[in-house]
Amino acid sequence: MSKDTSINIGLCGFGTVGQGVWKHLEQNRAELAARLGAPLRIAAIAVRDPQRKRAVKLPPKLLREDPLEIATAPDIPIVCELMGGTDLAHRVTLAALRAGKIVVSANKALICEHGAEIFATARKHGGHFFFEASVAGGIPIIKALREGLVANRFPQIYGILNGTCNYILTQMEERDAPYAEILSEAKAMGYAEADESLDVGGWDAAHKAAVLAWLAHGLWVPPSRMIVEGIERVTPADFKNAATLGYSIKLLAIITRDFASNEVSVKVHPALLPDHDVIASVNGVYNAISVTGDVVGTTLYIGKGAGQDATASAVISDIADAVALLRSGKCVHLNSEVAPLPAEQASAGKSGEGSVAASAVTLAPLERIHGRYYLRLTVRDEPGVLAHIASIMAQHAVSIASVLQTPSEDPEMASLVLTTHDANERAMRDTLHELSRLKVVNGAPLLLRICEFNT
Length: 455
Prior knowledge:
Distance between the termini: 47 Å
CATH architecture of the largest domain: 2-Layer Sandwich
Pfam families: ACT, Homoserine_dh, NAD_binding_3
Mean pLDDT: 89
CATH topology of the largest domain: Dihydrodipicolinate Reductase, domain 2
Domain ACT: 374-449
Active site: 208 (proton donor)
Largest sheet: 12 strands, mixed
Strand content: 25-35%
Structural class: alpha/beta
Helix content: 25-40%
Pathway: Amino-acid biosynthesis; L-threonine biosynthesis; L-threonine from L-aspartate: step 3/5; Amino-acid biosynthesis; L-methionine biosynthesis via de novo pathway; L-homoserine from L-aspartate: step 3/3
Shape: elongated
InterPro entries: ACT-like_dom_sf, ACT_dom, Asp/hSer_DH_NAD-bd, HDH, HDH_cat, NAD(P)-bd_dom_sf
């Protein structure tokens, strides 16, 4: 390819991210051409309604109604899938890869659901799939795992992967305000979607965690096989209790691997994080990821995890890599072998066929996922209740480390907060089930994990 030949790019989708990519490519056209050795040209943009009035003025000749037209156009070697969803985006991605193209995507749900098929298609037809923008927005975590830290094995990765939840939890803590009030404000400010369930229920972070688990361990873990819990039941009182104990509360994604047993666990849930942990002080819409490698030790990545500019930055970074690949024929991004976790094997915790690194990896059973726990219950304020609860916990080998009791709004009730010594997920599930059935317990108990990482 000659140095003066423009490289055509197709944008499939022109929402927030697509507009950001257009804006920054247009603003930095000359500088990017100088850096990359070739000018970039957006040759086509797929939109749902070409007649719709937009804040960004586009030449009408660029607009297409059918993104598959862009995916299969012979003169467009780089296709940016920025539509979202997992139906049309899936078809467009596969069509482009079957044509031997490079696909750049910010779609973590697509990767989580169809990752194995996407990479297999890329390998078969000589295409490439870049996805830096799918996790943590502008933080280059995917490049870090695939390139900068390639010499490492990763016993531990954890962090904040959802800016909406981090904003809500930060505001609840700082303003002593209830969840519903902050959620309403977050929607008004555009930090939360009209249907917030994907974010606050932990599923968005789970999709991202699935991508990181594959990058680190070569295993596709569907969210249905993870521990996934959201932030909806966290209250201002929990922040006060956590502060008394020396903790903050964050929604964390946690990926751990025990290399002795070769077991991986993937979890997403609100957690009590010690105040001295750097990630405990990462607030607002920011993301933060701690990666521990067996060679490098622990590295930390903090930045904006969402928004037009942060995500566009990651997309353009992948476009730059795609240009380097087209010009030189070389690329550090490998369409690696992947080991999906088939449903029939997932229930037994066994991985599917795949790479040598992934073939022996299994999902850790609940009995071998250990930690400490924070348990809040609303109970009748009468003698013997704590003893009864402690007896049930002891039956499941769950030992109480501390007890906090505060008044409840109901004068006949009390709020009881227990922390535990080391226990396992199975024991805690069984304990919760039994405690929730007690007549002296009012409502569903709240269980949070206490996460103290070795960093």
